[in-house]
Amino acid sequence: MKRDSRLSGVLHVLLHMAEAGGPATSESLAKAMQTNPVVIRRILAGLREAGFVRSEKGHGGGWTIARDLTAITMRDVYDAIGRPHLMAMGNRTEAPGCLVEQAVNAALDTSFRGAEALLLDRFGQVTLAMLAADFHARMAARTISAQEHIHG
User: Fold this and answer.
1) Are the C-beta atoms of 40 and 30 separated by less than 8 Å?
2) What is the Cα–Cα distance from 93 to 117, expressed in whole angstroms?
3) What's the first-to-final CA gap in the chain, in angstroms?
4) In whole angstroms, what separates CA 3 from the centre of its chain?
5) Are strands 53-56 and 62-65 parallel, antiparallel or unpaired?
6) pTM (2 decimals)?
7) Contact 58, 23 (CB under 8 A)
8) What contacts 61, CB < 8 A, 6 or more positions away?
9) CA 51 to CA 66: how far, in whole Å?
10) Is the separation of the CB atoms in 128 and 80 below 8 Å?
């Protein structure tokens, strides 16, 4: 089964927008994401409906984040993109006649629900501000490492 990377991609786009310091065009975001501007516009249109981004037309226009980064969680974004499946695993058959397979399905279903609840809870604890802070810490560490390499 193919991995669904929409959440990762949307979070990536949002952080690039946060770093832009002003409106970001679909073209500039597409270049950063190595994709087509149409893909970016489709993603951002859905986020605009959820109230996370806004767009401004005309010269100097583009996409901006509509809320404070502390007010948007990974769970919010996950919900806004349609709650894609979190687990690639599933039951062999959904309505088995075999009692053994029914027992297996029951155990798997309970485990999957528990794992999804934990993951969604964690998504709700991580804000875009936290992701941006992690990015800035990584940039600072890279800069220090590069300076040490040059002066080392």
Assistant:
1) yes
2) 23
3) 47
4) 14
5) antiparallel
6) 0.82
7) no
8) 23, 25, 55
9) 7
10) no
Residues 6 or more apart from 125 whose CB is under 8 A from it? 73
Cα angle for residues 70, 42, 119 (degrees, 5° grid): 45
Q: How confident is the model over 71-98, as a mean pLDDT?
A: 89
Confidence of residue 1 (pLDDT cuts 50, 70, 90): low
Of 64, 42, 62, 60, the closest CA to residue 52 belongs to 64
The number of residues making up the chain comes to: 152
Question: Is residue 151 pLDDT above 70, yes or no?
Answer: no
How far is 9 from 7, CA to CA, in rounded Å? 5
Contact between 69 and 56 under an 8 Å Cβ cutoff? The reply is: no
Q: Which residue has the tokens 């809320």?
A: 67
Q: Which residues contact 114 (CB under 8 A, 6 or more apart)?
A: none
> Quick one: residue 89, left, alpha or beta (phi over 0 = left, psi -120 to 50 = alpha)?
beta
- pLDDT tens for 13-46 read 999 999 988 899 999 999 988 889 999 998 899 8
| Strand partners of residue 53 | 65
In DSSP terms, 52 is beta-bridged to: none
Taken in order 18, 19, 25, 27, the sign of the CA dihedral is negative
